[in-house]
Amino acid sequence: METNKMKYVIGVDIGGTHLRVGAVTPDKELHFFEKKKIADILDNLHPVESLIQFLDGFIQANLGNSDVLGIGMGFPSVVSKDKKRVLATTNLNINDINIADPIQEYFRVPVVIENDVNHLLHYEISQRSVLNDEIILGFYIGTGFGNSIYINNRFLDGKNGAAGELGHIPVLGDEAVCQCGNTGCIETYASGKTLVLLHQEYFSDVPFEDVFTKYANSEHIVKFIKSLAVPIATEINIFDPHLVMIGGGVVGMKDFPKRQLENEIIRYCRKPYPANGLVIEYAEDTNAAGVLGAATNLYDNYIGKSISTR
Ligand SMILES: [Zn+2]
């Protein structure tokens, strides 16, 4: 019997610190949005089982009388090209695990996993008129340093799914140990983790969220902003992009010095191009964008709706 049940795709956005979830209608409307501490949900020893338990609870609480069309999940990880396995995660202990198949078996709906930054950039692209040949670079500074490269109408994934790991570009002379196991990665000094350490060491007289308000001009913050600008400009010099999208929790903090960051990016960009006319935009709503991006990816690329790039 045909019923007129509500239809939803569940979007899940797993970051280094928080898990966000919501149900998204085919018109891309977000419902039942929740933000949780990842440590309260994810059992490191049984990640798949704990995610199934969480999703089961979410569905029973909110979507009991609705049709769930699929589940899209973003991880802060290298994700396999078949979009089923998490291959490696820097800031969570999830490595080489098939996430999609057991969840798909349990809920009997399509389940697709993807790098979380690709979801964030997918959402921004779906909000804009993007032409076919445009190159768009996304830089998301949260717990780590996330990067996404959109080229030839798709997200660059490389041979294994590991393309765009800008945070793990080595820096000569830097011996700090990165959580990926290498030493000298960009992420060891250009990430939210670094900002937390700077706050503890030099700025503990103000709450963390006031660091930029009070200390944007201090030597340590000026150097921190420069450390973000160098890898961003490096990738701009490789791709000569049409659009640069910058976001993430650090960039969304009160009084983040955007002008200072832009000046430093331009300083390191090749002149006259790609420096001249470089377009930089900010992803303003990163709170729900990962959930919307996860669901939009499923609708656009897996459930047979139109492709988002117009
Ligand atoms: Zn690394």
From TrEMBL:
- Known EC number: 2.7.1.55
Q: Which domain of life is it from?
A: Bacteria
EC supergroup of this enzyme: transferase
* Pfam families xrefs: ROK
What Gene Ontology molecular function terms does this protein carry? D-allose kinase activity
**Alphabetized UniProt keyword annotations:** Kinase, Transferase
Asked if the Swiss-Prot or TrEMBL record annotates the protein with the keyword Oxidoreductase, the reply is no
Q: Which family does it belong to?
A: Belongs to the ROK (NagC/XylR) family.
PANTHER family in the record, alphabetically?
A: D-ALLOSE KINASE-RELATED, ROK (REPRESSOR, ORF, KINASE) FAMILY
Q: What is this protein called?
A: Allose kinase
**Which species does the entry assign this protein to?**
Mesobacillus selenatarsenatis
